[in-house]
Design goal:
4-stranded antiparallel beta sheet, 11 helices, 283 residues, alpha+beta, single chain
Length: 283
């Protein structure tokens, strides 16, 4: 059984789970309509639940509820639920605050005809395909719901909120991560004088590896060097990919306080070779 503690608006309430004694933020269409504190929550109306981890989260939701039309809360909740299903994950609860606030501000900017260009759109589309596609869905959903015409740039901004909530990283870290990945991809492109086939599975595998690589670099967590003897074989077998990986190693070590060890080199060689082989095969 769940009881209401506070009603923010018709669609957002603060409640208490009587079994676990946890305070939760609940959202759902009409979940707070004609209700009062200590009433039992209609659990069929719960669309999204956020467990209160700290007091600041609850106070920020309260502040937003007093400033932002409640329909925006419903839209934000629907987008978050859609994203979690698509990514098969639970996003950090603060996306509910950041995304709701962003959508509200974006609608205000739209009415005032002051659009903002998303300078990272091409990188988002390339590096974070799933999140970008969710952003596209959200863009269209917002356009239909509020009868607006958000540009593709907004899809990118929404994708950024999802990326941040999924990686549990700050916006600065997410930007840095994308920048590192982009720099490495540029080194590969220039070395081979190629353009990537971005919907090819080996490119996806390379991106996944680079995301984890960039995260380790930012967090200063170098991977354990296993002294893999396979590297000596691969260096000879895939000489060009090895030379390209060495350029990446030099660039990273010159520009970031991070040591690229032999295991990192090995995986870079293998991923680079797969991607380039497919491109050369299709030429």
């Amino acid at each position: 059984m769940v009881t209401i503690k506070k009603i923010y608006n018709n669609n957002v309430i603060l409640a208490l789970e009587n079994g676990s004694k946890k305070e939760v933020i609940l959202t759902g269409c009409g979940i707070g309509f004609k209700k009062k504190p200590n009433d039992i929550v209609d659990e069929n109306k719960i669309e999204k639940k956020f467990v209160i981890q700290d007091e600041s989260f609850e106070s920020k939701v309260n502040k937003l509820a007093n400033e932002i039309p409640e329909e925006i809360f419903g839209v934000s909740s629907t987008i978050i639920e859609y994203a979690e299903k698509k990514l098969n994950t639970t996003l950090d609860e603060y996306i509910y605050i950041s995304l709701t606030d962003h959508i509200s501000f974006a609608l205000k900017r739209y009415k005032e005809n002051t659009p903002i260009k998303n300078e990272l759109l091409s990188e988002l589309r390339r590096i974070h395909k799933k999140e970008y596609e969710i952003g596209r869905w959200a863009q269209e959903y917002i356009n239909k719901t509020f009868n607006v015409n958000f540009s593709i740039d907004e899809a990118g901004f929404i994708a950024m909120h999802i990326i941040n909530a999924n990686y549990r990283e700050s916006t600065n870290k997410s930007y840095l991560m994308m920048n590192i990945i982009n720099q490495i991809l540029d080194i590969i492109k220039k070395y081979y004088d190629i353009e990537f086939i971005e919907d090819e599975i080996n490119f996806d595998r390379l991106l996944t590896h680079l995301k984890f690589f960039a995260k380790r670099l930012i967090d200063k967590k170098e991977s354990i060097d296993t002294n893999n003897s396979l590297l000596e074989v691969v260096k000879i077998q895939y000489k060009e990919s090895y030379n390209c990986a060495k350029q990446i190693k030099s660039f990273i070590e010159e520009n970031y306080t991070y040591k690229v060890n032999d295991d990192e080199i090995l995986y870079l060689i293998l991923h680079i070779n797969r991607v380039v082989s497919v491109i050369n095969f299709n030429k």
